Design the sequence.
């Protein structure tokens, strides 16, 4: 188990957005979190990545208690996150976006600015990451001019520049064409199978979630109503009820 969330709660005033949630994620797996709008999925992500502090409960990453750590420290310890709204700098070209992320990681680690001699290494590393996500040949394309699917690939490349062990993605397939969704799904699988990373995704495309995931946790009204392998989730009565008017068809 690489991530262990226990009894975590967060309220916004009277609203219990996340209520006594447990989540355990095994290393080198794809673990999806699904549930209706407002179920608390993004809030749970915010609790795991340190964007907000839990009122109660603990978060352990690699057996270390990281509860309440700030996002930067979380990132340094190996937790990366991609956003629904992309973290790409649109006016910079593709490789410069990745190089920027590598430099900021190195700056964090060393607390000193890089000598110029290391700059070549940064660009080599950036090129290597772009190869992994299938953006080779597009290094000098201005990010704003990338096709939609490739924007998400660049997002993932920027995440990889932090050298994470765990990567969290909030709705990585949102607003994409079927073809682009397949590309990004392939990338997510690659992160697990080739790089050995652990991937936690929040996603509304239940069909894709069923195909991609090793394990699925279902949230509703701030609580976990089921956590199991995809086949078991498919047959779960409480989950079917939660999706009665929704997209739970596959
Ligand atoms: N900063 C905030 N202040 C007040 N209420 C919030 C805040 N963030 C989230 N909420 C509320 O908490 C509940 C859970 O929201 P959250 O964004 O975690 O849901 P979600 O499962 O990610 O939904 P979606 O699928 O629509 O993205 C919602 O009722 C939301 O309105
Ligand atoms: Mg959300």
Sequence:
């Amino acid at each position: 188990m690489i991530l262990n969330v226990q009894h975590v709660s967060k309220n916004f005033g009277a609203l219990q957005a996340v209520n006594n949630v447990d989540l355990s994620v095994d290393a080198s797996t794809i673990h999806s979190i699904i549930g209706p709008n407002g179920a608390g999925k993004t809030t749970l992500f915010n609790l795991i990545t340190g964007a907000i502090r839990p009122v109660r409960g603990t978060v352990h990453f690699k057996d270390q208690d990281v509860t309440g750590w700030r996002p930067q420290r979380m990132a340094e310890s190996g937790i990366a996150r991609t956003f629904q709204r992309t973290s790409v700098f649109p006016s910079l070209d593709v490789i410069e976006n990745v190089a920027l992320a590598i430099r900021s990681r190195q700056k964090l680690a060393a607390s000193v600015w890089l000598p110029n001699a290391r700059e070549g290494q940064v660009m080599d590393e950036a090129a290597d990451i772009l190869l992994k996500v299938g953006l080779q040949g597009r290094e000098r394309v201005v990010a704003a001019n990338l096709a939609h699917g490739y924007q998400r690939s660049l997002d993932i490349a920027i995440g990889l520049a932090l050298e994470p062990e765990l990567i969290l993605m909030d709705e990585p397939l949102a607003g994409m064409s079927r073809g682009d969704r397949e590309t990004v799904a392939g990338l997510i699988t690659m992160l697990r199978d080739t790089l050995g990373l652990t991937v936690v995704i929040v996603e509304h495309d239940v069909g894709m979630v069923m195909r991609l995931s090793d394990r699925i946790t279902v949230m509703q009204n701030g609580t976990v109503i089921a956590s199991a392998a995809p086949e078991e989730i498919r047959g779960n009565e409480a989950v079917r009820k939660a999706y009665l008017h929704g997209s739970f068809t596959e």
Summary: The chain has a mean pLDDT of 91. Residues 94-110 form the longest helix (17 residues). The first strand starts at residue 3 and ends at 12. The chain has two domains: 1-78+165-250, 88-163.
